[in-house]
Amino acid sequence: MARAAWREIAPSETAGPVRSAIRDRALTLGFDGVGFARPEAVADAGERLAAFVAEGRHGDMGWMAETLERRSHPHALWPEARSVVVLAVNYGPDFDPLRTLGQRDRATVSVYARNRDYHDLIKGRLKQLAGWMHGRFGGEVKVFVDTAPVMEKPLAAAAGLGWQGKHTNLVSRDFGSWLFLGAVFTTLDLAGGDAEGHPDLCGSCRACLDVCPTDAFPAPYQLDARRCISYLTIEHKGHIPLEFRAAMGNRIYGCDDCLAVCPWNKFARSTREEKLRGREDLAAPMLADLVGLGDAAFRSHFSGSPIKRIGRDRLIRNVLIAIGNSGKRDLAIHAERLLADPAPVVRAMAVWALSRLLPPERFAALGGRYAARETDPDVAAEWRHA
User: The domain containing residue 147 runs over which residues?
Assistant: First the structure.
């Protein structure tokens, strides 16, 4: 299962047995891929990230600019690190992630968010592995999983776990596009010579680029997050620009299109982790059930889920866009109830949804009741432009 990752690393006489022991322990703990890299192997990743931020493609993810220096190179984060153990967990679905896109009265949720937050699962295992490494071989260790400024994907590519595809995500010969990543930094010298990394096997394929509903890829291997539905539904805090709303369809949290169409998924397999298997109630939830969630119900419904981190208001904003795209006039009543919601971002998308679903005379009558007393300029603008 992990041989594809291991074969990219030429073991040295001294590091080989240690790496082999770490690999075996990691697989025992439930990781599906293991690789080793030197920090120097991703020296150019910082330059690419700096260009990404300089062009403003990170949108309002200010933390990317704030942590740019520490994120630019593993040694900037921890100068003493000599090796990085990169770990992968397969979260492959046992269903077609795109199958719900045509069910307009239902919502589509990204595969990774349909059950427990992967950060908690992976971080716990990373700590177990790091503690075992320290006790068995000495050296200092630090663990990282997504929430810290680590360039996981370049490190994973350098460690032979896969390559960064044209959609900028990691692609694996064994697991397709469905891998969560984490890393153990250590002062141990484990790399045993520079890792060769993994060759790029995308070839002339453009499937991931061409399927993107919002044209978020300016060029192969480049992403403009400001146009990405995953960014818009998760990271973007404000009103979603008009030009992207129709293209969002019924995607209310994330987007899997570019991952799901990758031909390398023919080798993917469903996850063996029960906590990463999709909850039945998030397989194709009814928009009518989601749109009425108040804050307390939202927190209860999404307890332990990564969806909880965006908060109720942003989720309802996304659900209202899906309702506006549904063509289902019977859903208009739910949007109408939110015209007086305390959150401006919710009220604004309720206006937009109703403008798409109601006959002009009915929408104008609602405008007469609500638009004149609207105090938020963005919501008032939705009424004017609808």
Answer: 3-186
